[in-house]
Structure formats: structure tokens, C-alpha cells
């Protein structure tokens, strides 16, 4: 890997394009290096993962709305169009709208892959826009694999180096450039065109983190889909010769100077050398549970404590619980966020899946976690749950913060230590470093786990034949022809989509 040094430049310094981060990203995207077998296998896993969580969300309100919008935008004249999750594969829409609808479906349940470092990310969000363009232009499975490898590489490299959340900028600001770069790789575009698309995608996808604060709304699922849609449109404009603001990162009125660390900021962004394989997807990890990633390990620990210490769940047995964890967990999904909504039993699902006090309480009481049942109003409002939930707090622990930011995969951790103080004065202490499904966890996810997740989540909405068709097709991804790639979608069983009303809007 090479290190690209990024700093703010005054306008009179006239920073050459070749010295700009957007140009360096474009060079990585344009590099024709082959994708390794290990990366290809993981890409297949993540396409399965995306389809699994999309299937489970087909009848949820944000997905219904986004799908209705997409279906109102039929295929344009520039290609064959793209498929929309749930709909008949023969019905095609314009690719930017397929990226939108499928992006919302993938993100709605907060249940797909993650990478955490200087910032947060769900790099599987790259797949919907890249796949939509691939279907539209008649690309092959091999082309799609190459594009997805780039999308993951660029987003993860940016996340390793540049913190957005520290300045309350939403993490999809790293997704717009990565998706644009991945589409550039897919299409075999030149460095100049990709450079312009990356700049436009970044410029149009910077927004505040209020979408993940307080009473979290349905926009949380739409935010990455919007970034993917903007990336598709940015590539289209760049291909037509339209240019972007530059230097987009380094300019004295640019992203770094005014949205991030200011005019004196400097970062070192790791990027592959020319000819070096794009391996970043192997650093990411998926979710076994439908909740914010930093809650994954805590669900596993709570299940363990439920099984090993059932006595602590006797009525009135627990006085209070303190979760000692990283800065990120404490301030984003813990009591350090100072969001009263995180303790509100009437809060939205989007809010509850960003509340570690709620998640730990329910997982401890139930000994399991379910993507629907664990968030139901009845479950959240249960009297004994509300009583215990109010006595769960988090505290930052410097050692767990250090491990969270460690560059050593062997010690990087997303968990912490829990102290359960009983009413009789006794204390139960336990800890966990990584989720069970993490590559270094107790039960690392492998192909059969991704397939099992898909079968479980798709069982109620897809016909058995459709489940088998998709699984057979996706596992041949690198060999797929353009015609076969058009079938890389999921079609809901008869009556599933008709069972939910479709909202009316402008389109």
C-alpha cells in the first residue's frame, strides 16, 4: 500500500490534479489489476448478504416507498435498465432509481456488513449502485466483481484515515466517492472521467449526522441509497464531459477545510499501489444480528450471560448495569449520546437499534435477538424491560477505545466489559472483544452462514424455487454473462407486495 498525504491547499498554490486525492482514487479505480479468488469469494458472500436483508425488508414502509418511486421511472434509452428487489425481473427501471430502491432495501434493517476505524461504514452499500449500472449497460459478472472490489477498497481506505463523525458529517460522504469509483472500474473508464465523477459524488453527498441523532427517522435507510443514486448520476455527467469542483478535498473552501479538521488538517490515506490487488473487503465483517454493529458483541455477551447465569434475571435481582466500552460506542449508541430517546419505549425502531442500553437489556432478558420481534412496540414497552433498561448506562474506557482504533487486527475490538450489580451487593463482571460472527470471533461467518442467513430471511417472502435460483446464480457470479446478470435479483412470492399499500407521491 502507498500513503497519500492529504492537506488543505490555498487557491494560489495551484495543486495539480495528479496531487489530489480524487485523482489518486481514480487511478486505483482505473487500474486493471485482477481480483483475487479470496476477494471474489467474499464479494459473493456479501451479495448474498445484501439480498438476504433486502428480502426481509420488502414490506417495510421505507422500502415500499422507495420501490414505488423507482417503478415510476422506467428504463431510459441508454441501456437495458436495472432490476428492483421484489419486483418481476423483467420489469426494468432507470439505473439510478434501481440504486435508490435497492439501496434502501439493503440498509433498512441495519443488518449487513460493516467496517469501523477512524469513521463508520457499511461498505455493502456500494453493491446496489454498481450492480444497477452493470445490469443497465450489459456488463458481465466478472465486470461486476471488479467494480465491487474497487467500491469496497476506496470506502474502507477512506474510513481508515478520515473521521467524518467527529465533525458530525454523515458517513455516507465516503460512500459517494467509493461508489463512483466502483462504477468507473466496472465501465473501464479513464482516470480523468473517474476523477470528475468522484469529485461530483463527494460534493453532492456531504450531510450532517442529524440523521443518526435523537429521534432517528426513516431517512437513515435512505441516506446511503441517496449517495449511491448520486454516484450513478455523477458518473453519467462525467461521461458527458461535465467537470466537478476541484480540488474537492484539498481546496481552501473544500470539504476538509470547512466540514472536517480545518485549514491546518492533514491525513494519510492508504491506497493500493499500481498493480496491487484490492483486498480491503477482507478487512470488513458482517452482522449476525439486526442492530448497529457496535451492538453485535454486546448481544452475544448478553445471550451468554442469559444462558450461564439465569439467576440474575429473577425479578428485582439487578440493581444497575454499567457497560465499559469505547468512545464510539459510548457516544454514538450509549448513554454518552445524551439522547433521551435511547431510553424511550415509544421510540422508533431506527432509534432503538442505536440504543445499547435497550439492546443489551432485551438480549439479556430473552437470550436471543430477532430482527422484528426484538423491536416490536410490545417488546419495547414491557414493564420489566423498561425498568431494567433505565438502569443501564455506558462509560468510556480508555483501553477499549485504544483497542477500537488499533491497526492490529488481532487486538482491534468493538466490545468491552460489563458490570452487573445485584440488589444484594454482589457483582457479575464479564467482557467480550468481538462479535461471535467476526473473523476472530467464536463462530466466524463463512459461506454456509451467509446462505443460512439468506434462507432464513427470505423464507416468508420468496418462493422456495426463487431462493434456490438466486443462490445457484450468485455463486457463479464471476462466470455470469450479461443476460444472466440480469437475473441477479429477488422476486417476491405472489401476493407479498400486493399485501402492503403503495403510497402515492409526485411520480
TrEMBL record:
Q: For the MmgE/PrpD C-terminal domain, which residue ranges apply? A: 289-477
Q: Where is the MmgE/PrpD N-terminal domain?
A: 20-266
Keyword list (alphabetical) reads: Lyase
The coiled-coil regions, if any, are: none
* One GO MF term attached to the UniProt entry: 2-methylcitrate dehydratase activity
| Record field: catalytic activity | (2S,3S)-2-methylcitrate = 2-methyl-cis-aconitate + H2O
Xref: InterPro entries: MmgE/PrpD_sf (IPR036148), MmgE/PrpD_sf_1 (IPR042183), MmgE/PrpD_sf_2 (IPR042188), MmgE_PrpD (IPR005656), MmgE_PrpD_C (IPR045337), MmgE_PrpD_N (IPR045336)
Q: Cite the Gene3D superfamilies for this sequence.
A: 2-methylcitrate dehydratase PrpD
A Pfam family per the record: MmgE_PrpD_C
What class does this enzyme belong to in the EC scheme? lyase
Give the E.C. number(s): 4.2.1.79
Q: State the similarity comment.
A: Belongs to the PrpD family.
The annotated subunit structure for this chain is:
Monomer.
Write the protein's name: 2-methylcitrate dehydratase
Q: Which organism is it from?
A: Mycetocola miduiensis
Upper taxonomic classification of the species?
Bacteria, Bacillati, Actinomycetota, Actinomycetes, Micrococcales
Amino acid at each position: 500500500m502507498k500513503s497519500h498525504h492529504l492537506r488543505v491547499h490555498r487557491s494560489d498554490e495551484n495543486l495539480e490534479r495528479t496531487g489530489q486525492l480524487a485523482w489518486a482514487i481514480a487511478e486505483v479505480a482505473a487500474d486493471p489489476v485482477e481480483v483475487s479468488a479470496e476477494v471474489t469469494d467474499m464479494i459473493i458472500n456479501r451479495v448474498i448478504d445484501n439480498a438476504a436483508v433486502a428480502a426481509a425488508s420488502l414490506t417495510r414502509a421505507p422500502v415500499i416507498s422507495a420501490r414505488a418511486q423507482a417503478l415510476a421511472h422506467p428504463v431510459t434509452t441508454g441501456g437495458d435498465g436495472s432490476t428492483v428487489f421484489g419486483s418481476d425481473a423483467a420489469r426494468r427501471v432507470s439505473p439510478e432509481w434501481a440504486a435508490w430502491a435497492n439501496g434502501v432495501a439493503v440498509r433498512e434493517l441495519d443488518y449487513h456488513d460493516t467496517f469501523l476505524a477512524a469513521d463508520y461504514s457499511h461498505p455493502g452499500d456500494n453493491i446496489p449502485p454498481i450492480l444497477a449500472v452493470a445490469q443497465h449497460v450489459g456488463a458481465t459478472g466478472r465486470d461486476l466483481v471488479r467494480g465491487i472490489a474497487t467500491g469496497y477498497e476506496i470506502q474502507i481506505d477512506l474510513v481508515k484515515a478520515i473521521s467524518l463523525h467527529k465533525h458530525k458529517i454523515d458517513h455516507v460522504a465516503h460512500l459517494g466517492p467509493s461508489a463512483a469509483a466502483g462504477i468507473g472500474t466496472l465501465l473501464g473508464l479513464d482516470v480523468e472521467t473517474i476523477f470528475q465523477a468522484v469529485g461530483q459524488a463527494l460534493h453532492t453527498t456531504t450531510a450532517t449526522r442529524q440523521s443518526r441523532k435523537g429521534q432517528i427517522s426513516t431517512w437513515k435507510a435512505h441516506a446511503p441509497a441517496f449517495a449511491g443514486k448520486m454516484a450513478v448520476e455523477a458518473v453519467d455527467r462525467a461521461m458527458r464531459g461535465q467537470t466537478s469542483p476541484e480540488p474537492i478535498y484539498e481546496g481552501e473552501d473544500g470539504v476538509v477545510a470547512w466540514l472536517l479538521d480545518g485549514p491546518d488538517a492533514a491525513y494519510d490515506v492508504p491506497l493500493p499501489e499500481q498493480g496491487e490487488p484490492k483486498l480491503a473487503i477482507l478487512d470488513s465483517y458482517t452482522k449476525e444480528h439486526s442492530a448497529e454493529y457496535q451492538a453485535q458483541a454486546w448481544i452475544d455477551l448478553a445471550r451468554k450471560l442469559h444462558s450461564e447465569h439465569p439467576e440474575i434475571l429473577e425479578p428485582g435481582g439487578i440493581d444497575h448495569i454499567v457497560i465499559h466500552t469505547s468512545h464510539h460506542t459510548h457516544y454514538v449508541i450509549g448513554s454518552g449520546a445524551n439522547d433521551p430517546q435511547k431510553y424511550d419505549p415509544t421510540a422508533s425502531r431506527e432509534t432503538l437499534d442505536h440504543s445499547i442500553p435497550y439492546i443489551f437489556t432485551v438480549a439479556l432478558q430473552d437470550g436471543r435477538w430477532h430482527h422484528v420481534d426484538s423491536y416490536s412496540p410490545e417488546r419495547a414497552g414491557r414493564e420489566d424491560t423498561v425498568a431494567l433498561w433505565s438502569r443501564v448506562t455506558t462509560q468510556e474506557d480508555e483501553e477499549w477505545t485504544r483497542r477500537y482504533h488499533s491497526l492490529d487486527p488481532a487486538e482491534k475490538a468493538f466490545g468491552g466489559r460489563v458490570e452487573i450489580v445485584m440488589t444484594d451487593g454482589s457483582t457479575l463482571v464479564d467482557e467480550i472483544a468481538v462479535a461471535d460472527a467476526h473473523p476472530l470471533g467464536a463462530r466466524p461467518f463463512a459461506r454456509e452462514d451467509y446462505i443460512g442467513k439468506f434462507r432464513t430471511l427470505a423464507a416468508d417472502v420468496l418462493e422456495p424455487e426463487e431462493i434456490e435460483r438466486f443462490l445457484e446464480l450468485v455463486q457463479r457470479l464471476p462466470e455470469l454473462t450479461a443476460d444472466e446478470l440480469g437475473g441477479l435479483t429477488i422476486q417476491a412470492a405472489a401476493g407479498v407486495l400486493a399485501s402492503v399499500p403503495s403510497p402515492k407521491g409526485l411520480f
